[in-house]
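Final report, closing paragraph on structural work. Over the funding period we assembled a curated collection of sequence-structure pairs, and we close with a single example.
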Amino acid sequence: AEMLGNTRLSEHFLSLGRELDIMDPKLPEDVYKQHLEPSRPAMSAMLDTMRTNSAASYVNGLINCGFGKEKLIQEDAKEGAWLSKQKDLGKMSTVATLGWVLLWDVDSGLSQIDKYLYAVDDHTQAGALLGCGVVNCGVKNECDPALALLSSYVEHQTDVLSRAAIIGLGVAYSGSNKQEAISHLVPAILDTSSGRLQHACLAALSAGMIAVGSLNEEVTSTIIQTMLERPTAHWNNTFSKFMALGLALTCLGRQEKADVIL
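Its predicted structure, as stored:
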């Protein structure tokens, strides 16, 4: 049961890392190798831009993925100093990258991300929700903390928190066909109000990720129903493509069995 649920995946991954002596956290500069590049006049000014900082956050998360430690956020001498260099979506993505660093470590990983849920800034809270979803990806836990946390934010009145929770559910339970997670997304998919269109499209995508390749009847019928009920104007929104993608994901690899839906 532990093997099927990947319960000890983080433990075994860290054990391999220690055996290979690659546990020391790395910084983005270790990857960039900028000292090997010819100097550029505008380089010093560019390094402090929000776009560069966001890129550094992604690189930091990826090079330390699964190892549980990194230096940019967790070991920052001044708490929150790196986050202060980010704005809005940059803060959200930076906190969310901690999910990569703490990947599969559901027990201690969620507790480390939890403090960001109490931040004043909505985008920081949203990043924590996404991070929780990433940490839980592919791991089955008896307590299901990700489901309990993320489901409580799906209908949240703050848009950025609601959208983050919806995406987090899709990431956390991708490929699991978990009915409890899908049931929390169905009301969001069926909400035909223009103000919640983006939420509905993201919910359809997340439901498709959870039920990928399963031809889940509830997911397919719900998405088709809401597609038929929506006004034409909704299909001019860029996010509407995610609804079609969510439906396609449930049919992935099923070939002729998906003909009825198509």
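The first helix runs from residue 9 to 19. The chain has a mean pLDDT of 86. We thank the funder for supporting this effort.
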